[in-house]
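Progress narrative, work stream C.
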Amino acid sequence: MERFKKVRLASILGIIGNIFLLIIKAIIGFITNSQAMIADSFNSASDIFSSIMTFIGNKIASKPSDDDHNLGHGKAEYIYSMLISIAMIVMGGKVLFDSIESFIHKTRFEFSIWLIIVCIVTIIIKFLLYLFTNSISKKYNNLLIAANSKDHRNDCIITFFNLVSCLLAIYNIYFVDYIVGIFISIWIIITGIKIYIESYDVLMDKSISDDTKNIVYDIIKQHKEIKKVNHFNATPVGYKYQISFTIFVDGNMSTFESHKIADNLEKEIAKKLDEIYLTVIHVNPIKIKNSKQK
């Protein structure tokens, strides 16, 4: 499927790009003792892990349904997204501790033009990766690649502040380096928590949004033959949802006619709502009172 091929390509590009950035950031960061650059290198390490998890999760999620997994393997995206989020939170905590420690001890770094060069290279690579992954996440509604896209965007912003701290060091202003290191670590932690919550909600079978549910009800209301609806349920199936509900129609209607209404309704919902994977409709008869009867 085209969706999974694009995600696989994005994850591979992410792995290659982040390995390159990790190497140059770590070398320059530890040589100059810049806490902001060291923090950025740790961020690249977490990005490599994220890209690998994206690749594995996407590979599993692309498998079709089978006898053991009747609804497919789509939730793998969210399991691996959760692993990514946990890694980000742990990594952010480590960087935060190191940055605060350097701030307390007033550790200074040695300015180097390579610090600026690394920052500029990072911003260019990350911005290109962001543009590519963002277009894929919007087109295919993939949480894994959306998490990667946000990570690339965040890296551009983080490295920009890293660049500012490097430039200020030219004028012997070093305290910004500690602040940027702390800022980067907090940003990583917050992003990780957001991804964790989103993944958790899906894995715990959080229902579809009220907006989507209202659209379904609006489609149902267009069928005047349907007198009542209840037992509405929604279950996540990977990046889509399976919904089910019961409709009540005139008990005098033939079985063929009542099920034809349900079939048409399923097709309309599938056509108008891409996030709906499957619609299961149960048809019940209801007694319609005759207005002529007393």
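Work stream C, second folded protein:
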Amino acid sequence: MKTVRAACIQMRSTTDIAVNVEAASRLIRAAAAEGAEFIATPEMTNLLDIRPEQARSKITLEAEDACLSALSALAGELGITLLIGSLAVGLPDDDRFANRSFLIGPDGRVLARYDKIHMFDVEVGDGQTYRESKAYRAGQNAVLAETPLAQVGMTICYDVRFPHLYRALAQAGAELITVPAAFTRVTGEAHWHVLLRARAIETGSFVLAPAQGGLHEDGRETYGHSLIISPWGEVLAEAKGDAPGIILADLDLDQVAKARARIPALQNDQEIDLTRY
């Protein structure tokens, strides 16, 4: 049996990068002290600010990002595999930013990067209109990362509404799929649990979903309820509410093959021709 102790970090990121780095570091250390080998932080770990013009002066190129540097060094110090759920990073050839997830190895080096593909351009009914594509450039490629612990498929937040991405990752070999998020309270209350459990069940994969939670300085309110879900759709751990903290679960990776054998949906795909009447 191959077992991995995993942790999700729930945060309430502010508009101050130094404050966020300190908060993330403290929670990562606490998770590592509980034996976590794979630790994941939420979307926008370094900076949560819905106002692009206010955020612009704080966002740097990846090579200069203070949060990436600090958390990579921390992963190396603790000897853990760390998913930095996402950082807002500058682009050398675009006025917009990237919403970029980083997978850091236990030596502190970047193993993989993933830029969020699906942009959150919606009106959700909480008085806010979100136009992520105005400030962020969409990624183009799905990412599967091989680590000593597991094969990891990387996604971010709104991606969870596009099941073909998750299916492609699972069919490529993903055992664990990460969904760091900053779900709004309105959409979280309606859809968070059911979407994440569906993605786990459809793919026969473990799903780790570290979340932002609470009322943030930029005025948005996020749902929290970080989740760790089994390949059979069981909730193994959940943050109860929106307060910062950690959740942990032991992942028996043999359960991936067992779930996929019981329901071989990944092998039963059929080409579909659509008939219109």
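The mean pLDDT is 95. No further action is required on this item.
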